[in-house]
Design brief:
Blueprint: E1 5-8, H1 18-32, E2 37-42, H2 52-65, E3 71-75, H3 80-92, E4 96-99, H4 103-108, H5 139-147, E5 153-156, E6 166-171, E7 175-180, E8 189-191, H6 199-209, E9 214-218, H7 224-235, E10 246-250, E11 253-254, H8 270-275, H9 280-290, H10 302-312, H11 315-327, E12 331-332, H12 335-340
Parallel strand pairs: 1-2, 2-3, 9-10, 11-12
Antiparallel strand pairs: 4-5, 5-8, 6-7
Helix pairs in contact: 6-7
Length: 346
């Protein structure tokens, strides 16, 4: 039986915020409560947006929160050879094709039909469904686009019908899932036209290579799972058959207006809260209270929360609590929540 391993995977493109802390806390708890390992991976695949100072800030924030790791930090920016090998394998099997669609043309697809209502947010992080425009190009049509100076992205030719195009899996929080790859955006990019590796390829390859068994992340990227599971099927032979087996997509935190917490919420940043006098124990306690695992106002460092979850029944109790939290309605962080932490009183 494989040892449990989870991961913390920040993107160093801005300051960490409460939404990040929420996701990283439960990913850490889920691995540690099973006596598993935790890998820290810096998802700095986009050089135009990633900055080393944000990486250093993320490391400081994670340590301040009390979330440790036993492998890493591993930087995606240093793993180009592995991603290249994965693409070469797929290309050798005739699974890739060049896509010459411009950004404007892709934006125009935003009005295209999305997935069924059963998929949260239509196609979620997939964006508009790609209709396979360049999949059907003749060699002459490809040559004409090259002559126009268009640099291609590279897309994976996904099965779009039949049982091969459908994915079913059990999500520990969101419950049973059944989606088609067409619902999740159709043929997806593995490499952008500027040469940057796409999220789906880098994450799937890394999770297999690093021996991840658990994937705990926000429900906004639930629709990534069928695409990544397809990549597991196609590439797991490169990694001895290793692939994640547990998926848990967390309900998201929102602000008082109902908007998902993001890096633009400066007052919700970990560094800003720390500078305002908030203790890490109070912050962790507030997040645990949102999941029904702590009392309002309780200060609770991660090791104490871990022991509480362990006594309650381990991951089974954790998933049940997070499912119940999601059913109670949108999880919001209000100004009163923040002031209740002791912030902004100095």
């Amino acid at each position: 039986m494989r040892a449990v391993r989870g991961r913390l995977a920040p993107s160093p493109t801005g300051p960490l915020h409460l939404g990040n802390a929420w996701a990283f806390l439960w990913a850490w708890i889920a691995a540690r409560v099973e006596d598993g390992g935790v890998t820290l991976r810096m998802e700095d695949i986009d050089p135009a947006r990633s900055r080393r100072e944000w990486e250093e800030a993320a490391l400081f924030d994670l340590r301040w929160l009390g979330l440790d790791w036993d492998a890493g930090p591993v930087r995606q920016s240093g793993r180009n050879a592995l991603y290249e090998a994965a693409c070469e394998r797929l290309d050798g099997e005739g699974m890739l094709y060049p896509c010459y669609c411009t950004r404007r043309e892709l934006r125009e697809l935003a009005g295209a039909p999305h997935g069924p209502e059963g998929i949260p947010g239509g196609v979620g992080d997939a964006g508009a469904a790609y209709p396979g425009t360049c999949r059907r190009l003749t060699p002459e049509e490809r040559a004409a686009r090259e002559a126009e100076g268009r640099r291609p992205a590279w897309r994976l030719a996904c099965p779009i019908s039949g049982p091969e195009g459908e994915t079913a899996f059990e999500d520990m929080i969101a419950g049973p899932q059944r989606m088609t790859l067409a619902d999740c955006g159709g043929d997806f990019a593995l490499r952008r036209s500027d040469g940057v590796w796409a999220y789906q390829l880098a994450v799937a390859v890394d999770d297999m290579d690093m021996g991840m068994t658990q994937i705990v992340r926000g429900e906004d990227i639930l629709c990534s799972t069928p695409r990544q599971m397809l990549l597991y099927d196609l590439l797991s032979g490169m990694f001895g058959g290793r692939r994640p087996v547990v998926f848990a997509h967390l309900p998201l935190l929102h602000d008082e207006k109902g908007e998902r917490l993001a890096k633009r919420h400066g007052s919700m940043g970990i560094a800003a809260l720390r500078a305002a006098g908030v203790s890490s124990g109070r912050l962790i306690g507030m997040l645990a209270a949102k999941a029904g695992l702590a009392a309002e106002g309780e200060s609770l460092p991660p090791p104490a929360l871990l022991e509480r979850v362990r006594r309650a029944g381990g991951t089974r109790a954790l998933w049940a609590a997070l499912r119940a939290a999601g059913r109670r309605g949108p999880l919001s962080i209000s100004p009163e929540d923040i002031s209740g932490l002791g912030a902004f009183r100095r």
